[in-house]
UniProtKB/TrEMBL annotation:
Keyword Magnesium in record: no
All residue ranges annotated as the FecR protein domain in the record: 194-284
Gene3D superfamilies named in the record: 2.60.120.1440
Recorded superkingdom: Bacteria
InterPro entries in UniProt: FecR (IPR006860), Ferrdict_sens_TM (IPR012373)
Protein name, UniProt field: DUF4974 domain-containing protein
Record's keyword terms, sorted: Membrane, Transmembrane, Transmembrane helix
Any one GO molecular-function label of the UniProt entry: sigma factor antagonist activity
């Protein structure tokens, strides 16, 4: 018996023959190889049997690749009687060769002759689709990405259309602003799941772009001396200027206060560090036991339990996500993997 010397050459010949693409010379070469190797002949006969392929690929689909591979090796061992005892190393090598042939050409032949394999039930990985869940002051929950929203809440018209949630004070609210400010302020909560993103225009006109796995809590309308919102996760803010009413973003590590500016805050609750990056304007970050850090455009405040660091950064690295672009320069592997988990809504396993 001639040794199975070239797995890929034999696989290519078998594939062409099974698909009817082999010329006369190639057909003769294959017949010669099959005559020399009875075990290869067995594999070839299995590939000609549609039911065998259905069973094999059914196992491949239902189990992990490792289990499917082990199952196939087991079948090869069961169907090959040992008339002459062979060295163990050769049996293992031969089984691997047969398995490689089967896997290399079986799929294309099966799909060409017996239909395509059913797609797995899990969805394709999609980054950053428009989706969000809005909790109203009365506790009702709306999946805003599934339908258009147009309701009046506390004298403010709340709309959702084409990926943007907006709050517009009504004429009545504007005329009765003094009386409205005396009423308790009602808050909304906007949750962006992993794999999602969304934009909200607050009642003062401030635009907030929320990244995946984030939550923003904010009043339906702003009242009082400060415009306060609370963030868990990451968001890019374009704040409408109002010097008499500073805009404040509260995070689990401190708060950012601005008058009118554009900046990014990355403050996921499962992270030990908060990043505040200023694009334009001027902001101050303050936290207990840390003090206050004032930022100029192009600067970033890095706040953790160990203290605060102010540094100059490349803005594209930290705000590119707003346009669907991630820049991982100087990022740790852990940070990159966490971004994948949030942005694609997948589980990631890695070792360093």
């Amino acid at each position: 018996m001639k040794k199975f010397e070239n797995v890929y050459q034999d696989a290519a010949l078998m594939k062409k023959a099974l698909l009817g693409e082999a010329n006369e010379s190639e057909q003769q070469e294959l017949e010669k190889r099959l005559a020399e190797c009875p075990d290869l002949q067995k594999v070839y006969e299995q590939l000609q049997n549609g039911e065998t392929l259905r069973v094999a690929f059914g196992e491949y689909k239902n189990y992990s690749s490792k289990k499917a591979y082990e199952s196939f090796l087991q079948k090869i061992g069961q169907t090959e009687p040992e008339v002459i005892k062979k060295p163990r190393t050769f049996r293992v090598w031969w089984s691997v060769a047969a398995a490689v042939v089967f896997l290399v050409i079986g799929l294309s032949f099966y799909m060409s002759n017996y239909g395509s394999i059913e797609e797995e039930s899990r969805p394709l990985i999609q980054p950053g689709v428009q989706q969000a869940q809005l909790t109203l002051p009365d506790g009702s929950i709306i999946d805003v990405h599934k339908k258009e929203v147009n309701v009046i809440v506390d004298g403010v018209q709340v709309k959702y259309k084409e990926g943007v949630l907006s709050y517009e004070p009504t004429v009545t609210t504007q005329h009765e602003e003094k009386n409205v400010e005396e009423k308790p302020v009602k808050s909304n909560e906007l949750i962006i799941p992993r794999g999602g993103e969304n934009t909200v225009i607050l009642a003062d006109g401030t635009t907030v772009h929320l990244n995946a796995g984030s939550k923003l809590t904010y009043p339906v309308r702003f009242a009082g001396k400060r415009r306060v919102v609370a963030l868990e996760g990451e968001a890019y803010f374009e704040v409408v200027q109002d010097e008499s009413h500073p805009f404040v973003v509260q995070t689990h590590l401190g708060e950012v206060m601005v008058l009118g500016t554009a900046f990014n805050v990355n403050a996921y609750t499962n992270a030990s560090v908060c990043y505040t990056t200023l694009v334009r304007g001027k902001v101050q970050f303050s936290a207990p036991n840390v003090g206050t850090v004032t930022l100029q455009p192009g600067e970033q405040a890095v706040v953790s339990a160990n203290g605060t660091e102010k540094r100059t950064v490349d803005l594209d690295e930290y705000i590119g996500w707003v346009n669907g672009v991630y820049n991982f320069k100087n990022r740790s592997l852990g940070e990159i993997m966490e971004t994948f988990v949030r942005w694609y809504d997948i589980q990631v396993y890695y070792e360093t």
